[in-house]
Amino acid sequence: MTDITPGILMIIAAVFVPYLPHHIRQIFMLGAIALSAFSLSAGAGIHWSVSVLGQELILHNADNLTLPFGIIFHIAAALNVIYGWHEKKAMEHTAGLAYAGAAIAAVHAGDLITLFIWWEATAITSVFLILASGTERANKAAMRYLLVQVASGVMLLAGASLYWREVGSLAFGAMELGSLGTWLIFLAFGIKAAFPLLNGWLQDAYPEATILGTVMLSAFTTKLAIYAFARGFAGTEYLIWIGAAMTAFPVFFAVIENDLRRVLAYSLNNQLGFMIVAIGIGTELAINGAVAHAFAHIIYKALLFMSIGSVMYRVGTAKATELGGLYKSMPLTMIFCIIGAMSISAFPLFSGFTAKAVIMKAVGYEGLVFVYLVLLAASAGVLHHSGIKIPYFTFFGHDSGLRPKEAPFNMLAAMAIASVLCIAIGVMPTQFYQILPYSLDYQPYDASHIVGQFQLVIFAMLAFTFLMRFGFYPPEIVSTVLNSDWIYRRLIPRMGSPVLAAANKLSVMGNNIIVSSAKKIMSGTLYVYQHPLTGPVAPGPAAIALLALLMSVLLLVNLFS
Amino acid sequence: MSNLNPNLKKMGNYASIALVVIGITLIIAEFFVHRHGEIALEDLPLFPAIYGFAASVFIVVVGIGLRHLLMRKEDYYD
């Protein structure tokens, strides 16, 4: 029973979801997730493989790296079911359960082809979470999302084929960058991990999904990519620099973005950067840090998306310009939102602190001073846009006059569970570190570290207060902030049309030249014909031969023009 | 924009005062706790506080600059 790959049962269960009545369906989904999670107890090793066309496909491979991702993906899937309990339509539930299942199965893929299959499955299932919004805007974003995701899959398949020819094995293990095959695999992972300039799809699509859909999306796709990097490219030095850039750039965008779900999508991107840096370092300590951060991040990110989703569920918008002053009408949502905000900002006693501390230690240990300073500044940035901006503009700030009801019970329940997990991870680091891939003997709570971290976050908050009070903080403006998706939404289409126009012009010009030269030959022929040479010097056959030559040139020209 | 909600304003004032008090406490704590970081630079007195404050201001200033470069109307892509 435990040999069945975790996640596959969830995908099978998703087929039945649309045919079940509302409450029974939710219970059924929780049951399917629990049953699927049971397979996690199989222990390390290869539990299920099939032979296809002489290739050994490893469907269920478990080890100390798959386990933490398996656990957290199941937790996230269960939280989504509770958070979406009120939703009567089956579309998001079906897609969400299959999507989570595909991501879990992908984590347990032991070879690149199996990984590719589930990799694409996450793309195809998750696009319905965006389509479910039902707006024209969402439909377009969904198609762009699907194109990018499928492109990532195609690159993975091409890379896997080349890699197989190169090393004669499809096993998914540590790879060395160098050949075209490995680079393609690297880029395929990079698209899904939202590398700088490859990140447009994330901020484009996630905020267009449904309320429940965004919460579901936030957990799986990008963290699957993080897992894939940790398995395939740990210790690849490029990742240190790519990751550092990822932590820094989204921060600036998040500060000026108006749509709070988009702000959270930028902050998600920034958090991935921390994990990518750690994977680039690749030591046992660093990989522990990356996995710890992914684990903690999935919960507090979901919590933040849930809290903003609850607000959106009640008032119909997540735009900072239209929100504010909701603290009195949605006090519990506010508390949960602040717990998420304090977790992502790495306040001591919250999950971000115990997770990020491991990464920072690994970076410091390697003596990467510049990267360390970038990550430290990015941490202050996270505090700004996710720690302060999200709760401040929603629940405080200027009063929007909106007085909605508190979020529905099921949403509050999901947020409460997520909040408890955030705090549990924050106050019990020793237990938390036990699920990490390598043994870790580290105690983040000492007076020095606590004072240092408090200094960082409190003075970053003081900076916010100072800028706000003196009117330097950029006001929220209804706007679109251009991101890297601009390249394929604007630049290429706009560049494309002048190129086409130029090509058209060139062909018209060529045509004109041919036509005018044909005319000249025609009139020349006519002239010769009408002025026959007289006398013995020009015999008739010669004139006819010349005529025939000119006529055939004319014919040829006509033929090709 | 009804920025004049007195409750919100009062809460904002309290929060600011609380932050300043905590900030001062942390500055005092610096003299009692032997603080050491992961890199040598971090061992400088009040480094996290100064760096956190400066980084935040820097991010906001760059953000404002970025608005001039990258901000478009909301219906830009429509």
- Total of DSSP H or I helical runs spanning 4+ residues of chain B: 2
Largest sheet of chain B: none
Structural class of chain B: mainly alpha
Please give the largest β-sheet of chain A.
2 strands, antiparallel
Radius of gyration of chain A: 30 Å
**Percent in strands of chain B:** under 5%
Order of helix and strand elements from N to C terminus of chain A: HHEEHHHHHHHHHHHHHHHHEHH
Description of the molecule:
Chain A has 561 residues and is mainly alpha-helical. Chain A has 3 domains: 1-175 and 187-229, no CATH class; 234-481, no CATH class; 488-560. Chain A is 71% helix and 3% strand. Chain A has 20 helices and 3 strands. Chain A has helices spanning 8-16, 22-38, 66-83, 91-107, 112-131, 136-167, 180-192, 200-205, 211-232, 238-256, 260-281, 284-315, 331-344, 351-365, 369-395, 409-427, 429-433, 447-469, 486-530, 540-560, and strands at residues 45-52, 55-62, 480-481. Chain A has a two-stranded antiparallel ribbon. In chain A, β1 and β2 (55-62) form a beta hairpin. The relative contact order of chain A is 0.08. Chain B contains 2 helices and 1 strand; from the N terminus they run ααβ. Chain B is an all-alpha fold. Chain B has 2 domains: 1-33; 38-78. At the A-B interface, α10, α14, α15, α18 and β3 of A face α1, α2 and β1 of B.
SSE topology sketch:
The complex is a heterodimer of chains A (561) and B (78).
Chain A: H1 8-16, H2 22-38, E1 45-52, E2 55-62, H3 66-83, H4 91-107, H5 112-131, H6 136-167, H7 180-192, H8 200-205, H9 211-232, H10 238-256, H11 260-281, H12 284-315, H13 331-344, H14 351-365, H15 369-395, H16 409-427, H17 429-433, H18 447-469, E3 480-481, H19 486-530, H20 540-560
Antiparallel strand pairs in A: 1-2
Helix pairs in contact in A: 1-2, 1-4, 2-3, 3-4, 3-9, 3-12, 3-16, 4-5, 4-9, 5-6, 5-9, 6-7, 7-9, 9-11, 9-12, 10-11, 10-15, 11-12, 11-14, 11-15, 12-13, 12-14, 12-16, 13-15, 13-16, 14-16, 15-18, 19-20
Chain B: H1 6-29, H2 47-70, E1 71-72
